[in-house]
């Protein structure tokens, strides 16, 4: 008795990526940011923790040019590199 493989019993349902697609930068809109990031990595023995500012700039460029889904930078792990909101004392001190 042989059992035939029946591939039709399970249906595969593809789903889109969670963060959307990441199109290639065909027009080189973010090439300079990518190059700065890659140079930083090479200069720092590929220790990406030393290139976080360049990484942030590159991701911001990609989001600004609709090359990736817009996300708050804090959600992408850059909370410590963001400018703090102005405090009430700062607002009161300005004329």
TrEMBL record:
Keywords: Cytoplasm, Disulfide bond. SUPFAM superfamilies: Cysteine alpha-hairpin motif. Its main location: cytoplasm. Residues 72-82 have a biased composition (Basic and acidic residues). Residues 30-63 form the CHCH domain. It is found in: Cytoplasm. It holds the Pfam family CHCH. Residues 1-20, 72-95 are annotated as: Disordered. The keyword Disulfide bond applies. One of its GO terms (biological process) is mitochondrial respiratory chain complex IV assembly. One of its GO terms (cellular component) is mitochondrial intermembrane space. Belongs to the COX19 family. PANTHER family: CYTOCHROME C OXIDASE ASSEMBLY PROTEIN COX19. This is Cytochrome c oxidase assembly protein COX19. It comes from Parambassis ranga (Indian glassy fish). The gene is cox19.
């Amino acid at each position: 008795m042989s059992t035939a493989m029946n591939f039709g019993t399970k249906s595969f349902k593809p789903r889109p990526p969670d963060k959307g697609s990441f199109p290639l930068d065909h027009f080189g809109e973010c090439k300079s940011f990518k190059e700065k990031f890659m140079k930083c990595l090479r200069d720092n023995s590929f220790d990406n923790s030393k290139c976080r500012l360049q990484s942030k700039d590159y991701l911001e460029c990609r989001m600004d040019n609709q090359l990736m889904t817009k996300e708050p930078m804090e959600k992408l792990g850059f909370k410590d590199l963001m400018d703090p909101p102005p405090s009430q004392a700062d607002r009161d001190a300005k004329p």
